[in-house]
Amino acid sequence: MNDKQTNYNLNDADYLLRECVNAIKGSIDQIYYGLLNYLSEEEQKKFLSYLKNQSDSLQDVLYKTIVEKANKINDLNLQLVKTNKELNMLKNSLEEKVVKRTIEIKKVQHVTIFGLARLAESRDEDTGEHLNRIRKYSFLIAKKLSHSKLFKGYIDKKYISNIYHSSPLHDIGKVGISDKILLKPGKLTVEEFEIMKNHTIIGGKTLEDAEKQLKYKTKSFLSMGKNIAYCHHEKWDGSGYPFGLKGTEIPLSARIVALADVYDALTSKRIYKDAYSHDVAKEIIVQARGKHFDPAVVDAFLSLEDKFKERLIEQ
Ligand SMILES: [Fe+2]
Ligand SMILES: [Fe+2]
């Protein structure tokens, strides 16, 4: 209820009550004039003067009672308005606190998850910068794709934020791979590679189990992290692992991270190779368009070429 509404109702009530008083007074007057016919002129004057005083005082009493009641209602309404204002202020301050606290909790959550991903990566990656670049590349591609007809409406702000925070989890399953295989300097044997492939299942399963504990599963970054961990080695033509998924059977987030991960691996120095230049890496990715990578993701990467180069310079 607002002040205006309160005043309007009170004025309305006041007007109606005044009308009632006038109507009562009018009825009383009718009775007086009916009686007057039976009285002498002198008696009429006396009686009229007497009754006039009576009706005036009756009107006063009625009016005073009404005004008193109206004032009481007005006081109550003012008190109500004041209480409502205080309640609103309290509600706003509580809402502000909830928003602040939610932002803090989210930050702690993201920092913790990134820390865990770095910990998992620390055995075969010195600086953790790989994860930092992966999330920036994935973010850039997702943002670019959000403007294309193909993904408009599917990739929203939440999706872009989720891929930024969940892409570093892609190799979290490496914690389950022994040093002997993970840190082997030379080429892996067929058997060793089969074991290595398991990092996708270990990571995906770990995040899936974590996700099961959440009440709201849809659109959570853990859910996206699970898809990425399971599917970042799947290939567009179906020749990837662990499931051999093909085309759009592979979750889009995993198709994006697949390119980001390979680009970063190509342009980074490894024990077994030097870092390739952007142009060489780009050529390899273009050759794999429609084979290893989703053509739409490759096209987004090509249109963002300058930004990817910038990231390389920042390293
Ligand atoms: Fe991987
Ligand atoms: Fe990686």
How is this structure best described in words?
- The structure is a single chain.
- The protein is mainly alpha-helical and 315 residues long.
- It folds into two domains: 3-96; 122-314, Hypothetical protein af1432 (Orthogonal Bundle), CATH 1.10.3210.10.
- It is built from eleven helices and no strands.
- The protein has helices at residues 3-36, 41-121, 129-146, 157-166, 179-182, 190-212, 221-231, 252-266, 278-287, 295-303, 305-314.
- The longest helix has 81 residues, at 41-121.
- The radius of gyration is 40 Å and the shape is rod-shaped.
- The model is unreliable at 1-6 (pLDDT under 50).
- The site of one fe (ii) ion (FE2) has 5 residues, from loops.
- CATH third-level topology of the largest domain: Hypothetical protein af1432
Task: Estimate the helix proportion, in percent.
Answer: over 70%
Give the ligands present: fe (ii) ion
Structural class: mainly alpha
Task: Examine the secondary-structure arrangement and name the CATH architecture of the largest domain.
Answer: Orthogonal Bundle
Task: Indicate the radius of gyration in whole angstroms.
Answer: 40 Å
* Helix-strand string: HHHHHHHHHHH
Strand content: under 5%
Assembly classification: single chain
Largest sheet: none
Low-confidence stretches: 1-6
Distance between the termini: 60 Å
**How many domains, as an integer?**
2
